[in-house]
Design brief:
This protein has helices at about 1-20, 30-40, 45-75, 80-85, 100-110, 155-160, and strands spanning about 115-120, 125-135, 140-145, 160-170, 170, 180-185, 190-195, 210-220, 225-235, 240, 245-250, 250-260, 265-275, 290, 300-310, 315-325, 330-340, 360, 365-370. It is α+β, with helices and mostly antiparallel strands.
């Protein structure tokens, strides 16, 4: 028994040595046992019990080695160096997920945004374009920064960026073709979101279904210009309605001209026309709207832009309003127009919470049914 145990230990030690010299991706049990069995003598009856015991011990050793290797992987993943490296890899994080914009959150969750890892580094500062989405209504772009080693700016990325410009297929996206650039608030100081829309509903040209977008921006404290190229494609999948339903109130003709529903945006185009030469309900700001579904839930405002049409001898005011998307296609949309109330000095009247007072105009309220086949 003593001689047999020493023989077991000797052979087991030899097997352990073979395991350690074998790459981890190889089947350790089969490969090692093949080497072992090729060297066995022909004493089957005497060595059978030894073989089975060694195989059991071998399985334990192999499992232990695999567990140690897995633990090394997990440990390396959570180390600061590895975390910084993983941050550079696309598809692991989303700037859109951080925003309060439900449409951009949906773009990330539904895989509608294009994940990018396009970056430029100047003077140790890296600006990274992480993702982009275009739904035929608005273009949204996510940005991240990576500081110089040991630097931690007190400014947010949004505060550091200035003179941000976009070129669409090499042509400037200026105020004749675009709504201008909007910034989205982000709880993360190291990220920012910028977006813009075309003015196709206000006399401008629509953006192409796919285009090359060049982003250029200045970062405070960095002398060189940051410039990156991005390929942008329309995700499609939207419902476009042209109800052209109007209501009259005093000297105003209020019309809902177009509604576009996408997975990330609800866009509504309105027109206010004057019926005579007098001023509108409130010439300073015009008529605003709130948007509700059939359950009476309001869709929160994202942004909007308006333009006064001065051709054809009129001064109609056209507005594109972009609000959060519907989770599912609604049966109807209700538009509730309102105006702000002002005091005698032309300032907003405020309520007890400090919010500006508004006055709804029931005569202009419109409910529009949505055809699910659209």
């Amino acid at each position: 028994m003593d001689t047999r145990s020493k023989q077991e230990d000797k052979e087991l030690a030899q097997i352990e040595r073979v395991i350690r010299e074998t790459p981890i991706e190889v089947d350790l049990v089969n490969r090692t046992m093949n080497k072992y069995e090729s060297k066995r003598n022909t004493k089957q009856a005497e060595s059978f019990r030894i073989h089975m015991k060694i195989r059991q011990k071998l399985m334990i050793i192999t499992t232990s080695v695999a567990m140690i290797f897995s633990l090394m992987i997990v440990t390396s993943l959570i180390s600061p160096t590895m975390a910084a490296t993983m941050k550079e890899v696309p598809l692991l994080s989303s700037v859109f997920k951080l925003t309060r914009d439900l449409g951009l959150q949906a773009a990330d969750e539904k895989g509608l945004s294009t994940k990018l890892n396009t970056s430029v580094t100047h003077e140790g500062f890296t600006l990274n374009v992480t993702e982009v989405v275009y739904d035929g209504t608005r273009v949204a772009i996510g940005l991240e920064r990576h500081h110089k080693e040991g630097e931690n700016s007190q400014e947010s990325l949004s505060e550091q960026i200035s003179n941000i410009e976009f070129l669409l297929n090499g042509e400037p996206v200026n105020h004749t073709n675009s709504s201008g650039v909007f910034g989205q608030p982000s709880p993360d100081n190291n990220s920012a979101i910028f977006e813009f829309a075309d003015l196709k509903n206000q006399g401008g040209s629509p953006f192409p279904k796919q285009f090359d977008l060049t982003l250029s921006a200045t970062i405070s404290g960095i002398s060189e210009l940051f410039k990156m190229d991005i390929l942008v494609s329309d995700i499609g999948n939207y419902v476009n309605l042209q109800p052209n339903i109007g209501r009259k109130y005093k000297n105003n003709q209020f019309t809902i001209e177009q509604i576009t529903l996408t997975p990330i945006t609800t866009s509504i185009t309105t027109r206010i026309a004057l019926l005579d030469k007098s001023t509108s309900v409130d010439f300073r700001e015009g008529i605003h709207i709130e948007v509700y579904d059939e359950q009476g839930c309001e869709l929160k405002l994202i942004n909007g832009n308006g333009r006064r049409e001065t051709n054809k001898g009129n001064s109609d005011f056209i507005m594109d309003l972009r609000v959060h998307p519907f989770e599912t296609l609604p049966k109807a949309i209700t538009i509730k127009p309102y105006i702000h109330l002002y005091d005698g000095e032309g300032s907003y009247q405020l309520d007890e919470n400090g919010d500006s007072k508004i006055q709804y105009i029931p005569e202009l309220e419109i409910t529009i049914p949505i055809n699910s086949k659209e």
